[in-house]
Amino acid sequence: MSNNSNALNRLKAIAQQQANKSSHLYGDSIVKRESLQSNDSKLITQSLNKLIDWINNNSNTKSALKDLDSRGIYPSMFQLFNHYDLEIVRLVVRAIKIVALKDAATNEILRSLDGVHLLEQLLEQYYDAEILNDAATAIECLRRCAPYSVRGVGFGKYSEQTGTFQWYLEFYQLHFDDVGVAWRVWDGGIGLAKWVLDNPSIFEGKDVLELGSGVGVCGIAAGLISKNVLVTDYTDKIIQALQDNVKRNMRLTSQLKNVTVQALDWVNDDVPSPFGYEVIIGSEVIYDVKLVEALANVIYLSLTPNGTFYTTCATVREGIPEFIKAMQDRDFNVEQTNFPSHYIPDTKFDVYFFKCTKKNTLLKLQQQKE
């Protein structure tokens, strides 16, 4: 507790120093440091909501986030991690996550304020799904955030003699403002990709569909051992990034030949090849209760009889019970286990692994659509 107290005192001092350096007034569109340090929970809540809206809607992101630093806002935000009001903690962690996702340069400031350590403490203190989810996302960004960069990932056996992996893939990353959370390589995607390559018997000679591909780490890795892989997502910028990453990695390794890209909106688009895929994969595609039915429909309509869907999902995600029910309603056997931690060694929370196998009996199409 003494270390935590010292950290909070340091943050207070930094906030005061930074506030003294700037006399800039933001007007009604931005929160003041003093409001975040108020004893009035209602005022703090209103201020955090205003701050989140301002960050999300400011067209000049880098300048806006730099202004927040000059006003001592970030240290004041970190001080709220110990607030007694759970909703305030949720809001401030959400704000930190948004900042971390938006600008890599600002992450240097957050790291200098011991942001990673303070966020990791939240993972130990809280069991609230929203806090755990947002804190974990912010931690990943503070550790590895690099928009508009290329991230290389090694897979398979590592040779001590040559200092190389069996496979090496590269992925061009975008920016959060471009495509939201799909902008970068996430550790969850790397973990599922490693599992895929560790289980070649499931994929060799198979036609594979990946849902929610993002920048394509899992689907492109599957292309190293599968007969054919179709990687999918739903916005133009993500599709362009997927196409670029497929081309980049086809140049890197001759083993990657039959990976194609197609847009797929789960809600509005027809499936690419009805009942045509023996295996479907997707990393962290269970995250929104409102999309569970659409996801289950796409899986049902795309899998061959006795086909199988494999996915990983952090235990803090929303929609897990609803997903299980939706799949069982469509006559799937659903196996839920814990994903081996060595595939994602840095994670601070548990990850589920789902194996959903289609039974022989097919539901009537009308029943499926309801």
From TrEMBL:
Q: Does the keyword Ribosomal protein apply?
A: no
Example GO biological process? methylation
InterPro entries documented for this protein:
ARM-like (IPR011989), ARM-type_fold (IPR016024), Methyltransf_16 (IPR019410), SAM-dependent_MTases_sf (IPR029063)
Q: Name one GO molecular function term.
A: methyltransferase activity
Cleavable signal peptide: none
Keyword Membrane among record annotations: no
Give the UniProt keywords, A-Z: Methyltransferase, Transferase
Q: What's the domain of life for this entry?
A: Eukaryota
Q: What is the name listed in the Swiss-Prot or TrEMBL entry for this protein?
A: Methyltransferase type 12 domain-containing protein
Origin species: Cavenderia fasciculata (Slime mold)
List the lineage, top down.
Eukaryota, Amoebozoa, Evosea, Eumycetozoa, Dictyostelia
